[in-house]
Amino acid sequence: LGVNRTTVMNAYNELASEGLIAGHVGRGTLVKRGYFSQDEDSFEQDTPAWLLGLAAGEGAVLGPDARVLSELVATGGYREVISLASGTPPKELLPAEQLQTIFMEGLSGAREEALGYVPVEGLLSLRRGLAARMRRRGVNVDLQNILILSGSTQGLGLIGRFLLNPGDEVVAELPTYIGAIQTFRALGARVIGVPIDSEGMRVDLLESVLSRRNPRLIYTQPTFQNPTGASMSQERRRRLLLLARRYQVPIIEDDPYGELYFDGKEPQPLKALDSRDYVLYLSTFSKMLAPGLRVAWLAAPEPMISRISLHKQVFDLNTNAIGQWAVTEFLRRDLMDGHLVMLRERYRQRRDAMLQAIKTYWPAGIRVNYPHGGFHLWCRLPGDLRARSLVREAAQERVAFLIGEPFYTDGSGHNYIRMSFAAPAEEQIEEAVRRIGHTMKGMLKR
Ligand code: PMP
């Protein structure tokens, strides 16, 4: 029985997309620690001085936690691994047919818009379309408030460069999105965690941080937070905005999941309550359409948009035009709302399958959130069970998920795991949860 090549490539791509491994010509694949492997032997004798400088420097954006996933590959084998690790849309939910039609029917008539250089702020029609969509969600913005980005990741980096100096502090939920932690740390900032509960960031605790320290930025995901799935209550949203004003600290609202809700009414962004211009709103088409498009946007006060655009111009001149054009056409042809209705239904079914399987197969004593949208289930393990040990043992059962620790900025979280229900179909979710439950029961008996 050979290892299936596609499965190997999928596992490889997943690790690479999470930034956990890197290929080096002639040296095979190395688990990333810093810019280079720490393995002395991997430096060649004639490495130029400037490169040695980089190797000795502090490029280490990702910590050693990355290795846990790579051990999965080492111990679990590649075959039949069901991965609940990465939060990306699965291929059957990517809008390939619609995009194909758009490209076939429209591309030749839109050469300049789709294939030329475009304004750094983004295609006018896309900015206009996004402003209209945001107004429908209760946010008072116009096209001059919108900047198109190469992923919201670029937005985090640009805002960070604009507002932070090395040594500055950023407040974020504890736990929070790994990519945001990495971005702020890469800019030399310190991330201060404020605990989150089922009603979002503990804004009461935020106040004491703001009064004792001097953070330059608050980073929050008020809706279906990654990793906890929690949403901030209206009361706390109002209080958060009051505090931002009192202490003069701008807020990044990172909202990739707000339109992927499963129960009840569509949640409004925090920015809908922001009458005083404290919120820099980021969202993305990565979860709603396809991450490969690399199209996202920032909604912010106009002076901020024009200044940040200058920074953006330095880095990439403009977000890829063909992706912007495709998204614009998707909106213009009125395909977006139907696509979202389909996604909500499918992801809701997957969430329900995961919750049901947990009820059926897991031992008692585990605390699990009930996410009303987004991609993630967040679990506190029972007793002394450590996530690191669980992920290793579960790898033997050919199932993958993420440990909680990298989502924390204070070294805690050893007994949490994050499972994404976005990618596998329901039967696979059930099987994965069953395998994890089986592993847990075995560990608890010892
Ligand atoms: N923010 C959060 C909270 C995310 O979960 C992700 C994707 N995992 C991103 C930002 C990055 O999105 P993009 O593809 O737009 O860079």
From TrEMBL:
The keyword Transferase applies. The keyword Translocase does not apply. GO terms for molecular function: DNA binding; DNA-binding transcription factor activity; pyridoxal phosphate binding; transaminase activity. Its cofactor is pyridoxal 5'-phosphate. Keywords: Aminotransferase, DNA-binding, Pyridoxal phosphate, Transcription, Transcription regulation, Transferase. Homodimer. Belongs to the class-I pyridoxal-phosphate-dependent aminotransferase family. In the C-terminal section; belongs to the class-I pyridoxal-phosphate-dependent aminotransferase family. This is PLP-dependent aminotransferase family protein. It comes from Ktedonosporobacter rubrisoli. The chain holds residues 65 to 510 of 528 of the full protein.
